[in-house]
């Protein structure tokens, strides 16, 4: 039985944890980030802007939870990165227009945004200049607003066979107290892969979908390799 480390915050790992158990392995919850809400007036302003733009871009379920956790989303069309983001949008009554099956840059390359205003509620660690440029290059008019603060945290020292990373900030949290030597890793997408490569520890596998359940399946596959 392999021990699979899940480094996302507890609110995001239920599906992945359950899938690992279904496959006969043991999930180990090792949060490497903490997502913190911002002031209520900030959230209210993001909600207001969302009603006036042409498109809302959702790259993480956390953005939905942070901004619309207790209210219904507006009817503004939503472009979502991955099924988990899309599911979060649907849970708040949002209007899904496009669901991307890869990372955000790939999704932006595939959609037509010419002349349309795009609200992107993002984390405090998002590389906002690069995301603004990516949206602008598609012809869109970017409006990036920080919706929640992400803080890397050091994980517990439980032994694991494989570690799943769903963000560069989770990598930062892990490496603040633990090494990546002699351990298999799964990256949820190219951005997280780049952070691991930059540290000199390329991931064993990069998920073909930005989805934690898929990452969990790939981690189980790795743990079963002799």
Question: Can you give keywords for this protein?
Answer:
single chain, alpha/beta, Rossmann fold, 2 domains, six-stranded mixed beta sheet, five-stranded parallel beta sheet
Structural class: alpha/beta
How many domains in all?
Answer: 2
User: Spans of 5+ residues with little confidence (pLDDT < 50)?
Assistant: none
The H/E string reads: EHEEHEHEHEHEHEEHEHEH
Radius of gyration: 17 Å
End-to-end separation: 12 Å
Commentary on this structure:
With 226 residues, the chain is of the alpha/beta class. The protein has two domains: 3-32 and 153-223, 3-Layer(aba) Sandwich (Rossmann fold); 35-150, 3-Layer(aba) Sandwich (Rossmann fold), CATH 3.40.50. It contains nine helices and eleven strands. Strands 3-8-7-4-5-6 form a six-stranded mixed sheet. Helix 3 links the parallel strand 4 and strand 5. Helix 1 packs parallel to helix 9 (212-223) and helix 3 (61-68) runs parallel beside helix 4. The longest helix is centred in the C-terminal third of the chain and has 12 residues, at 212-223. The protein is globular.
Helix-strand layout with pairing:
Blueprint: E1 3-6, H1 14-22, E2 26-29, E3 33-37, H2 40-50, E4 55-58, H3 61-68, E5 77-81, H4 82-91, E6 95-100, H5 104-110, E7 117-123, H6 128-137, E8 141-152, E9 162-165, H7 168-175, E10 184-187, H8 190-198, E11 205-206, H9 212-223
Parallel strand pairs: 1-2, 1-9, 4-5, 4-7, 5-6, 7-8, 9-10, 10-11
Antiparallel strand pairs: 3-8
């Amino acid at each position: 039985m392999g021990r699979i480390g899940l480094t996302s915050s507890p609110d995001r790992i239920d599906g992945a944890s359950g899938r690992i158990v279904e496959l006969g392995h043991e999930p180990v919850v090792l949060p490497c980030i903490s997502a913190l809400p911002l002031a209520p007036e900030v959230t209210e302003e993001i909600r207001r802007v969302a009603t006036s733009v042409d498109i809302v871009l959702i790259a993480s379920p956390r953005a939905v939870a942070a901004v619309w956790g207790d209210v219904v989303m507006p009817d503004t069309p939503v472009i979502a990165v991955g099924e988990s983001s899309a599911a979060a949008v649907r849970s708040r009554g949002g209007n899904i227009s496009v669901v991307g099956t890869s990372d955000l840059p790939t999704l932006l390359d595939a959609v037509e945004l010419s002349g349309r205003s795009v609200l992107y509620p993002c984390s405090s660690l998002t590389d906002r200049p690069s995301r603004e440029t990516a949206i602008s290059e598609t012809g869109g008019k970017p409006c990036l607003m920080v919706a929640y603060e992400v803080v890397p945290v050091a994980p517990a020292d439980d032994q694991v066979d494989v570690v799943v990373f769903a963000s560069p900030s989770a990598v930062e949290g892990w490496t603040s107290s633990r090494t990546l030597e002699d351990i298999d890793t799964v990256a949820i997408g190219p951005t997280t892969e780049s952070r691991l490569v930059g540290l000199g520890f390329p991931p064993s596998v990069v998920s073909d979908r930005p989805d934690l359940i898929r990452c969990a399946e790939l981690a189980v596959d790795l743990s079963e390799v002799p």
